[in-house]
Prior knowledge:
Elements: H1 16-23, H2 26-30, E1 42-51, E2 58-64, E3 75-76, E4 79-81, H3 88-100, E5 108-112, E6 116-117, E7 122-131, E8 144-151, E9 162-168, E10 171-178, E11 185-186, H4 187-200
Parallel strand pairs: 1-7
Antiparallel strand pairs: 1-2, 1-4, 2-3, 2-8, 5-7, 6-7, 9-10, 10-11
Amino acid sequence: MNDAPLPVPAAPPLDVAEVARRLSDPARLARGGGTVPPEGGRAAAVLVPVVLHEAGPTLLLTLRAERLSSHAGQVAFPGGRIEPGENPEQAALREAAEEVGLDPRLPRILGRLPEHVTGTGFHVTPVLALLEPPLNLMPSPDEVALVFEYALAPLLDPALPQRQSALWKGERRHFYVWPHETHYVWGATAAIMHSLAVALREA
């Protein structure tokens, strides 16, 4: 697998109010594809935080710490396992608080994007939320190596994301890759971003 970062093409700025309007439409959120979870997987949830900067909205992403047992060193949304008694929204907010120090009272939950299944067997429910800047975050060094923001504008480019493939455990796997100057954005994170892109684009 070629894990070199991809250059980000130029894209027009997005209107914050229009982004919030589109993402507040449940019908748009439901059309983003996803994968059908098989039986017996492990339930997880991630928070998909759209930060409403006046200069253009962004996605809040993390680079997972290298010491973690799964998906170490990969770009991810804040999230993790759904604990007994939790729903996906509660789990996503709790994990975001634990991983990056995000106050769970701040995100405005809009709904859920379609579920995705990771190669490690997690059934991930993406919980979409809006955040107003500034953000006062305190990442946990045990879980997060870096917190960064990804401009939302490339998600409206119909030529993105790229589709790549690689051999994994003797099987050829196909996956999405989103451009970034520094990080390789692929896997479940890229698939969830693709669902978000489908929800954002006009149809």
